[in-house]
Each structure stands twice: as structure tokens, then as C-alpha cells.
Amino acid sequence: MQDEKIIKKESNLIYDNGKLFGKKKGSLVLTQNEIYFLCLSKKIFNIPLKNITNVRAKKGVMAGYDFLDISYNEEGKNRTKTIERRSYVNGLVLGHLDKIAEPFFRSWEKIIEDARLGKDNKSGSNYDEIEKLADMKNRGIITEEEFQTKKKQLLGI
Question: I need a labelling partner for 149 at 20 to 30 A (CA). Which of 41, 102, 112, 155 fits?
């Protein structure tokens, strides 16, 4: 199979396969046909988009933890892979817990769903821009109002 166009890639993420010493740090990669986790240039797992049944971004119980659950069907069995992102937010030190309310992986939900349904995601680069703006908002560089205004502009709503 020839190289596929990468729709989205995120580095410095963690995948835990549940085994002793099973935590791997690497990149989550979405292409037109699959999503996979890459660690040291090796695919740790890959899931064909046609097998994905659900994608859910969520915040962890502890601040600074974000998760992406990817549910899929494999040989008639329902399975889930969970990707984790850890970040240490300055807002905690400053007491601004409201700055970290939005799950980090929220944009992944939509972009994976669009890829699953074969939608041409012309605004894919806008999701990266929104993530950068969300990071700026979380660090207190821009306000919630500024973030929402720019987000709506980028999404065309």
C-alpha cells in the first residue's frame, strides 16, 4: 500500500496496552483509511476507519489528563483503545480551573467522524488552529470570548 495522506497527527501522547511496561509514548495518526499509534517509527496498533463505531474525548478525574476513547469492531468483538495526554496547566497554579474545561481531544472526535463518513474536511487545518487558540486560552493569553469569536470564524458559523 502506498503512503496515505495524513489528515491529522498529534505527538507526545501515551497508549497503554494494559501489560506490564505497556505504556508507549508516541503519535496518533489519522489517514483517509485508518488511525494508528506510532512509537519509534513502528505502528503499535492500527484501526481501519470502517471498523470504528464511536470516538469520545473526555477529561480525566485529575486535572491535566485528557483521554480519547476509540471504540471499534474487530472480528465481531467490540474493543476500545484509549489514548492519553498529560499536561501540566499553569491555570492550576493560578487557580483558574475554568481554563481547562474543554477536553484536549475534542477536535479529534469531529475529524475522525468526518474521515469515517468520507467527508472532505477542507477545514482540517482550522482544527489545528483552534487547538492552538484553546492552548492560548488555557494559558490565559486570550479570553474565553476571544477564543469563541475566533473559533466561530474558523468554523464558518
Answer: 112
